[in-house]
Amino acid sequence: FNCHGQKISKNHKDYEKNQNYKNEFIELTNKLIDYFNTNNYNKSVTWYVNEADYHISSYYKSILQKCSRYGEIGLHTHLNSKKFNAEHYNMSKDRKDWERLGIKDANSSINEFIDYNNFIYKAGNHIRCNELYDCLSDNNFSIDTTMDINNKNFENGYLFYDDTNILLGTEPFFIKCDNGNVILEIPEIRVSKVMQHIKECEISDKLCFIKLQIHHWQYDELIPQFDSLIERIRNLNYELEFIAVSYTHLTLPTTPYV
Asked: pLDDT tens across 207-255, in order?
């Protein structure tokens, strides 16, 4: 199946490639689950489900059931997609373009695998707008992890996002919404910036919250970096509590806006 939920014929020129993507997704997601369980990190993992694009709840039920047992579930939607009236570098500010399919219906599908209503969200490619947060709050979400500490992405002449105003040493913070409620923003951070982030938190006497990201296809690249980083943090003799060591996406490595 492609990112629109359409079945790919065996005669399609990309059938074998997409079959390999599927097999890699299953194999490496299970490998990540084993890694988190072996290291007792499973209670600190959020599995972000790209339901609107890949219908994980329909086509990968066993994977989603397993993830819901070993970690928490969050919703992940690429609203920077033509199906949501957007380009790959932006999103529509009109919630009518994406609220039903990208938020409500998608979250309803993954709620069937957990015994509570999911309240955690992350936008694709860190792309968001104020209207998104208002929508999330209206739909009973309370935590977002879209932002990216002290980072930005300028690619092929387009600025996807710019979070350089979120300085190293920044604590999680609240975003005020039009309905009077707030969303707790827990921005992710890149591995290369974590040690300086810890230093800045110590200088300012702030809570040091570290949330790392990994996709299944990044296993060989990032897991050694995670192990090395965690060991370096342990050697600082700080009290280390695994509330949210990392999060991973349940999504296939194909471009969702094509």
From this structure: 899 999 999 999 999 999 999 999 999 898 877 777 544 455 555 443 3
In angstroms, the CA 237 to CA 220 distance is 28
Hey, CA dihedral for 50, 56, 61, 62, is it positive or negative?
A: negative
Range name among 76-85, 120-129, 241-250 with the lowest pLDDT average:
241-250
- CA 167 – CA 170 distance, rounded (Å): 6
Residues 46/71, Cβ–Cβ less than 8 Å = yes
Work out the pLDDT band at 1, boundaries 50, 70, 90: low
C-beta separation of 193 from 153 below 8 A? no
Lowest mean pLDDT among 71-75, 112-116, 226-230, 242-246: 242-246
Distance CA 103, CA 95 (A): 10
- Closest-CA residue to 90 (of 126, 120, 135, 54): 126
Nearest-angstrom CA–CA distance, 232 and 39: 16
3-state helix, strand, coil in the chain (%, to 5): 40, 15, 40
- DSSP annotation of 100 reads I
